[in-house]
Predict the structure.
Amino acid sequence: MRIVLLGSGNVATQLALALKAIGEEIVQVYSPNLVNAEALARLVEAVAINNLSQVEQQADLYIISVKDDAIGDVAKGLNGVSGLVVHTSGTTDISILSGQVKRAGVFYPLQTFSKGRNVSFKHIPLCLEAEEQDLILLQQLADKLSSKVYELDGEKRKVLHLAAVFACNFPNHLYALANQILQQHNLDFDIVRPLIAETADKVMVNLPDNVQTGPAIRGDERTMDKHLTMLSNLPELQEIYQTLSNSIKITHK
Amino acid sequence: MRIVLLGSGNVATQLALALKAIGEEIVQVYSPNLVNAEALARLVEAVAINNLSQVEQQADLYIISVKDDAIGDVAKGLNGVSGLVVHTSGTTDISILSGQVKRAGVFYPLQTFSKGRNVSFKHIPLCLEAEEQDLILLQQLADKLSSKVYELDGEKRKVLHLAAVFACNFPNHLYALANQILQQHNLDFDIVRPLIAETADKVMVNLPDNVQTGPAIRGDERTMDKHLTMLSNLPELQEIYQTLSNSIKITHK
């Protein structure tokens, strides 16, 4: 498959490397910033471009992997192509493309991508949306990348993206707050790392409701009061502690 | 070392198995409920007792691993022994023991223990507190169990316990809320498991502040508004979404 990649951020980079690794041909990498386009193009032996008028018109697949706000503008620049055009966004409707291009789809990898951290696509859920033949095309590609391929419509994809904020972005921020508490007392973050690993590991085989631990689920008001007192110099954390503890109590009552 | 274990819950069970595995001798397991004492005693070839008057007086170490509220009462029953008496609680002061027994200490394993899930003590941080010779004794035992042994006073141990609520109990509850959102739309929890694993894995080598992702840190108000609208039938989750998103924005501004 001859692929044009539009974007050069974390998702675009990881996806480009994964596609290259399974033997797909990335013909061009587009970014409005040519330096960024070149950096990624070099990694996957593609041609770097920074103007949508330069886009190769005969590719099989165009992957738009840019900030949500910019998808529409990039799609406009692809209105002449006959290949399939997909975006990689969890929250953006497929209609942002289908108004602009002949064949539209979505190729949403459900994962958290950070600069400088390579991820294996093998176990990344890939969520696809497209019409009939194009869906088959995307499925064939996705199956080569990952063992977890889902067909999801736009509504379900948006629900999944929302759930991902609760499953990933918020837990990571709570790790950061734990670190803030530790630092205030000259304790190293390293001491809670095994706990974080085990907490995530437990829900690989259990549902989280079945393995909840801690003072809130035990109804241990004394410990919770002590904790709230300890947080009196961090009112923002105190509020979070209260809100989440109440939610645990409500869920398990 | 001849050890008497007082308690038969999750922590007591995992600790007993780990101690047995490194060749320590557990002479007795105490629980007010004899059936519980017997179940654990059988696993580690100990004698089950349900009355503190039956406690062997000549053991080297007495480990009190019961609910925080019950530690004081159990300690009272040990006031004749000359061996070292420790509790395993993160939030309880050593003084609850030192008022009752000659030699007091703390042996706090920082981990989340759930029924039916065996954990390896190899990488569990063990947090110790005791006076001189007794501290050395605990360190020797702890070093055999784990590669992560810390000496921490009561204040730091309590801070650590509070941080653990943020690093473990709250993230697990957020996994549960993610599942609640998914279930409402007939999506399986399995789809977010790789994301949870990667989120935890990332902070094994990074600090969480450096790998935060999601709409809040991007300042993506449009996506956050969409998410809040989607949560309008779950006001409790809406509040949590708002509180944590604000906290991410404040932390990273």
Remarks:
- Residues 2-152 of chain A form a domain with the Rossmann fold fold (CATH 3.40.50.720).
- The longest helix of chain A spans residues 154-184.
- The CA atoms of residues 199 and 213 of chain A lie 10 Å apart.
- Strands of chain A lie at 2-6, 25-30, 47-49, 61-64, 84-87, 103-109, 126-130, 149-151.
